[in-house]
Amino acid sequence: MGVKAIYEGDAIHLQCEKLQGTQFCFSKKTHTGTEALILAAVKAEGRTVIENAGQEPEIDDLISYLNKMGAKVTRQPLDKIVIDGVKQLKGAIHQVMPDRNEAVSYAVAALATKGDIVVENAKEEHLKAFLQKIDEIGAEFSVSDYGIRFWYQRALKATDVKTAPEPGFMTDWQPLWTVLMTQAQGESHVIESVFDNRLQYIHQLNQMGASITLYQPSVEDPASFYEFDVTQQFASAHAAKILGPTSLSGTELTVPDLRAGATLTIAALIAQGRTTLHGIEHIERGYEDLDGRLRQLGANIQKVSDEEFLKGGDQENQIFIERVAP
Fold first, then answer.
1. How do residues 222-248 score in pLDDT, each as one tens digit?
2. Domain 4-84 annotated CATH 3.65.10.10
3. Would you say the CATH fold of 157-322 matches that of 4-84?
4. Where are the domains of the chain?
5. CB hemisphere CA count around 308 (13 angstroms)
6. Is residue 131 within 8 Å of 124, Cβ to Cβ?
7. By 3-state DSSP, what share of the chain in percent is helix, strand and coil, each rounded to 5?
8. What is the pLDDT of residues 314-324, one digit of tens each?
9. What is the pLDDT of residues 137-168, one digit of tens each?
10. Which CATH class is domain 157-322?
11. Rounded CA gap, 109 and 122, in Å?
């Protein structure tokens, strides 16, 4: 597209007089990469063709918004997106699609705690891979105009999951599913094929009493099986064997990242006793008022501010969570 990239240590400097349309094929499906290239192409000079483009509904939502602004972006068969650059974009009104990761988080929380919840505005077409697995484990859901209701009715059955790009099972759902499988009967397996090193929260679940073993799955062709670069030696395991159901116990933990933060919060709702979570800024990056909404659903959860914690000599935000007896 005419950009010159200069690498200086940890910094990347980009220089470009004018973006030019181009044809580009991603070697692996990429959600954010597809969105970034679309954004660069909408005002580039000429036509850009993206091949092996991501299929996520968030990408289609972005395309819809940009076209309202005057862009010329179209999806074509065989995972192709064509963008004809325009000189100017105009303002537009657009309602962002519902957050499907948040919908899955509340659904998993309800099922893991043997509850019943309605997730308003959740869309069946955005959650097909998740709903298929809900069917497999014996959980209940009902789709309506207002959203999707999820509820626990009988003991959950263990099942296996492998993450994959859309239309597969999202990598963001993997930690949430793992904690749910700690409450299912039997042996489950979760394989993470989209990102490297995304099972670092497992040892924390084991600290709480889960029975999870990490392992490296046997794969004939890692380059085609995994969505990340496999030219380097694997530094971490990419699969987990989960035995359930197991009783969890409250403890003190530090949140490593956004989705693991939601996972540990759900684990704390299941666990007996009090759980203290440090580093909740990771959770707040992706969830609006998670503690407040969980309290509305009956959770015994308290968020402690920096100011309150400074009185005790600590400088971290924390959440205290205690199990509410069913």
1. 999 999 888 776 768 999 999 999 999
2. yes
3. yes
4. 4-84, 157-322
5. 7
6. yes
7. 30, 25, 45
8. 545 788 888 87
9. 999 999 999 999 999 999 999 999 999 999 99
10. alpha beta
11. 15
**Contact status, residue 43 vs residue 72, Cβ threshold 8 Å:** no
Amino acid at position 307, single letter: E
Q: How far is Cα 20 from Cα 18, in angstroms, rounded to an integer?
A: 6
Residues 118-144: pLDDT tens digits?
A: 999 999 999 999 999 999 999 999 999
**Average pLDDT of the residues in 38-66:** 98
Q: Do you find a cis peptide bond into 326, omega within 30 degrees of 0?
A: no
The b/e string for 4-30 (b: 16+ C-beta within 10 A; e otherwise) is eeeeeeeeeeeeeeebbbbeeeeeebb
End-to-end CA distance of the chain: 58
Amino acid at 224: S
DSSP letter assigned to residue 47: E
The DSSP symbol for 95 reads: P
Mean pLDDT, the chain, as a whole number? 93
Q: Please give the Cα distance from 36 to 192 (Å, whole number).
A: 24
pTM given for the model: 0.92
Please report, as a single letter, which amino acid is at residue 107.
Answer: A
DSSP lists the bridge partners of residue 211 as 243
- Strand arrangement of the beta sheet that strand 239-244 belongs to: 161-162, 186-191, 239-244, 211-215
Please answer whether residues 138 and 156 qualify as being in contact, where contact means their C-beta atoms are separated by less than 8 angstroms. Answer: yes
Classify each residue of 210-231 as buried b or exposed e, where b means 16 or more C-beta atoms within 10 Å of its C-beta.
bebeeeeeeeeeeeeebbeebe
In three-state secondary structure terms, 243 is: strand
Going by their DSSP bridges, the two strands 318-322 and 300-304 should be labelled as antiparallel
Pairing type for strands 80-84 and 116-120 reads unpaired
Burial 145-175 (b: 16+ CB within 10 A, else e): eebbbbbbeeebebbebbbbbbebbbbbbbb
| d(C-alpha 216, C-alpha 228), whole Å | 15
